[in-house]
Design a protein that fits this description.
This protein is of the alpha+beta class. It has 3 domains: 32-116 and 174-198, Mannose-Binding Protein A, Chain A (Roll), CATH 3.10.100; 118-172; 200-317, Mannose-Binding Protein A, Chain A, CATH 3.10.100.10. 32% of the residues lie in helices and 26% in strands. It is built from 7 helices and 14 strands. The chain has helices spanning 6-18, 42-50, 66-76, 117-143, 151-172, 210-219, 239-248; strands at residues 32-40, 57-60, 89-96, 99-102, 174-179, 182-187, 192-199, 201-208, 231-233, 257-264, 267-270, 288-291, 296-299, 305-311. Strands 1, 2, 3, 4, 5, 6 and 7 form a 7-stranded mixed sheet that branches. Strands 8, 9, 10, 11, 12, 13 and 14 form a 7-stranded mixed sheet that branches. A hairpin with a 2-residue loop joins strand 10 (257-264) and strand 11 (267-270). It is elongated, with a radius of gyration of 27 Å.
């Protein structure tokens, strides 16, 4: 009988030491959305979401399907003193060039309604009034003694021109809001409430072996001051979590992705310490768990693929 390689025993020992306490991931993988009623521009809102304290990741909320559009629209309507359900909130969708991209990097596939006509009319009226006022101010300035003008006046005019150009550019930047159960196009520089999204696992679009993926996950967050091991390869325990992870596979660059399932000490274990009792002894060299849109499979740990990392204990600090 062929004896196991010594390095395999070392790996088993090291992985066993690194297993998390059972029960770390009990809440589930579904993202958590939170309404922020402080009004600000889209860029300010995205920065505020990303710098939110706590565990997990934060960003302006992504909208993936029509059900989420309606759900986030109703979340938006929880703004205080919003009796008529007329609230508008920024979400994580912005036009870049000719495409609309989400804050998770994916391209939007959902329809967007044009800006409300009445709102456009109000903006046009305001811009016309501002133009008339500026014209009048210019005439008044011209009526003054030209000889009294100095370099300071010229600089002030240049600053004003630059500001007008920036305001005009910001006005053309288009972002998305949820409003009355639909996505609508809206100027990014407007001041609105917004909805942040907190998510607990990340698809890493790098192709690595299972061990390389494990090390990558456990090193995540160190550059942000988190201790090593704040992340781990993803553990899945419920059909809901499995289905949710499989939905995210549409964004993967490989047909299957690594998850935190490994044949260790004669049993299948998730990296959070729980046993996966469904599978029995694996075939030769297929000692690592891989997830596809159809099912979990045992694969050779040396194969290269994308992988899921999960924030350990993030759900305890929502």
């Amino acid at each position: 009988m062929e004896l196991p390689r010594p390095e395999y025993h070392v790996l088993v020992f090291l992985l066993s030491l690194c297993l998390s306490t059972p029960g770390d991931f009990k809440q589930g993988l579904r993202n958590v959305f939170s309404l922020q009623d402080q009004v600000m521009s889209w860029t300010e809102a995205q920065f505020t979401c990303k710098t939110t304290n706590g565990t997990g990741h934060h960003r302006l909320a992504n909208v993936r399907n029509t059900s989420e559009v309606k759900m986030l629209s109703r979340v938006c309507n929880d703004i205080p003193d919003n009796d008529l359900n007329e609230a508008k909130c920024f979400v994580g969708l912005r036009k870049q060039g000719n495409t609309w991209n989400r804050t998770d990097g994916e391209e939007n596939v959902l329809p967007l309604q044009p800006m409300d006509k009445n709102e456009r009319d109000e903006r046009d009226v305001k811009k016309e009034n501002d133009k008339e006022k500026n014209d009048k101010d210019d005439k008044d300035d011209k009526a003054k003694d030209d000889k009294a003008k100095d370099d300071k006046d010229d600089k002030a005019k240049d600053d004003k021109d630059k500001k007008d150009e920036k305001d005009e550019k910001d006005e053309k930047d288009k972002c998305a809001i949820v409003y009355q159960d639909n996505l609508h196009i809206h100027p990014c520089n407007d001041k609105l409430a917004h909805i942040c999204e907190k998510y607990f696992f990340v698809l890493v679009k790098e192709e690595k072996s299972w061990e390389e993926a494990l090390l990558h996950c456990r090193a995540m967050g160190v550059d942000k001051g988190l201790p090593p091991g704040s992340y781990d390869l993803l553990s899945l325990h419920t059909h809901e979590d499995l289905s949710f992870a499989q939905e995210e596979l549409v964004h993967a660059g490989t047909r299957e992705v690594w998850v935190g399932l490994r044949w260790l000490a004669a049993r299948w274990l998730w990296m959070d310490g729980e046993e996966h009792s469904v599978w029995k002894c694996p075939a030769d060299l297929t000692h690592c768990g891989s997830l596809s849109r159809q099912r979990l499979d045992a694969r050779s740990c040396m194969e290269k693929r994308n992988f899921f990392c999960q924030r350990v204990n993030a759900v305890n600090n929502v």
